[in-house]
Amino acid sequence: MSDIHESVSKISEWDGSVRQRPVRADRVFCGSSAGGLCAAVTLMECPVDKALNFMRQMVREMQSSYLGPFSPNFLLTEHLRVGIDFLFPKHAHKIATNRLHLSVTGNNCNKIITHYDTREEFIDVSYILCIFVQ
């Protein structure tokens, strides 16, 4: 449980530093995995309190089961997709195009994605950042 409190503390610190310096229109963000997701959240200027509330709710649901995140009833991937969809604005793909460079790896190949035609495509790419590729 202390890891969760520490994560919330770190996110709150990050939120404070982001609010002090608003996102400039000419700024480009890059990242992969969790860093890519943080870059997307920063670029979209997502309300951190909204993200924290979602995270807390997901953790409570996870802890309600004896097996936690390993419970067959807890679908982490579905929670992640819903959370990403919930946090990003309706025009996220327009904000992200040519300003958010995400590194995605699959099938032993790495690709940097910079253009997003639709919101669904942007959500899919953001979702892929959360998946561990073996």
From TrEMBL:
Organism annotation: Oopsacas minuta
Entry GO MF terms: triacylglycerol lipase activity
Protein name: Patatin-like phospholipase domain-containing protein 4
Gene Ontology BP term (one): triglyceride catabolic process
InterPro entries according to UniProt: Acyl_Trfase/lysoPLipase, PLPL
PANTHER family: CALCIUM-INDEPENDENT PHOSPHOLIPASE A2 IPLA2 -RELATED, PATATIN-LIKE PHOSPHOLIPASE DOMAIN-CONTAINING PROTEIN 4
GO cellular component, one term: lipid droplet
Superkingdom field: Eukaryota
